[in-house]
Amino acid sequence: MKTLVEYICTEKSTYAYDAISNKIISISGDFIQPLTKRDSFAITNYLTRCGVISENKIKEAIWINSFSEYIKMLGGKIPALVLELEQECNLRCDYCVYSGNYENYRTHNATAMKIDTAMKAIEFFHSHNREADKATIFFFGGEPLLRQDTIKTLVEYAKSIFGSKPLSFSASTNGTLITPDFLSWLHTEPTFNLYITLNGTNHDKYRHFPDSRGSLKIILNHISFARDNFPDVYNNQIKFLCNVDSFAEMVDARNFYISHSLHTPATTSFIMKRYGNEKIDSILRADIQRDNVAFEALVDLYINSGDEFCHSHFSDSLMTIHNRSMTAVYDCVPIERTCQPFGAKLFIDATGQFNICERTNSTINLGNIQNGFNLEGIKTLLDSYKNISSNACIYCSVQRLCPRCLAAMISGNLFCSIPDDICKNIRMSILRELKLYCEISEKNPKLLRLLSR
């Protein structure tokens, strides 16, 4: 009998996670820990006979909504627009997807979005956002603050088009080009958030200028100026993003943020491995023993105190577990955690072409601002992804919690399955997060309130 069950052992109990029902089931303490394969097999048979878990009869993966429903969403409910204002950057960060260290990704160049292209993009977004409750526009690069005057112009233009609809803006920046004038302007635009990448003690190791000079000191000076002279902007509009290569580096980053009295990052995430070359491999080559010790320290800190920095890393995956659908699946399993193109945001590159998102190397034609959406190309993309998921994922015990990304299955104009090593790492991460979730429910259940959507 084939089931989709994983067993999670904590210090206090044993749990079974069943992908068919998407439930976490507490098992009697009579079972001895740690479980052997023989124990797991016996428990699985027992739980199946009792009707607690079900046999896997899944035949295919399907999108959570039909293509006709998807087209309706495109017509008026796109929530956000991402504008690639620049493909140039004043830094040369080693792990940037545009660094030349990732296969099939563009590299930094002088291509910039013309202002009339940006205005047409905003108009297109407005016409496809009419049924949404609010709208958000992100300015992306390269480095978007190379175009500060353009950003100011486009914000005014967007406000004139969207009228009274709630409208917010943001830009993701390396933080080296922040000026007093731009901070003064931000003070007049309270719905504009500025996301600064700040990685802590090891920041300069990877984030540097073309001549290899580090960028950390400059960024900290700009942050200090903002905090002293524009406290409202610093407290309400400046956010931080933190990228690390390991849990050990995450511990160092946390200490850095605390010692400099900085906001907790909005997110703390790992450097991307997919499509990386030897340089990326060398960056991500961690001391496993040291990393495991760091992970356990972060977990203990999070469970015992709800530490905000730890929350910035663990919360997304824990929220997925906490808010998961409890609807059982049988013949078909819904593709739940994968964004359909433009369902969360419409990314328009510097030339006016539509793409899945800002972090993909896809060259598949999905449309442009002149001709609109290429529905045939989009349908082919969705069908290809569904077929790959049906072939590769329906036998996986963590498929309903998997954050597999549609963009991660595309290289250039070709679809490809996720490599086994990536799947293995994702599965290990999900099992680790399931254990953390169970430990929180045992030791500090009040912390679960922070995970409710």
UniProtKB/TrEMBL annotation:
Residue stretches spanning the membrane: none
Keywords for this protein: 4Fe-4S, Iron, Iron-sulfur, Metal-binding, S-adenosyl-L-methionine
Ranges where the Radical SAM core domain occurs: 89-235
Any GO MF annotation of the entry: 4 iron, 4 sulfur cluster binding
Protein's UniProt keywords contain Coiled coil: no
A Pfam family matched in the record: Radical_SAM
Gene3D superfamilies, sorted: Aldolase class I (3.20.20.70)
Entries under PANTHER family matching the protein: ANAEROBIC SULFATASE-MATURATING ENZYME HOMOLOG ASLB-RELATED (PTHR43273), RADICAL SAM DOMAIN PROTEIN (PTHR43273:SF8)
Official protein name in the record: Radical SAM core domain-containing protein
The organism of origin for this protein: Anaeromicropila populeti
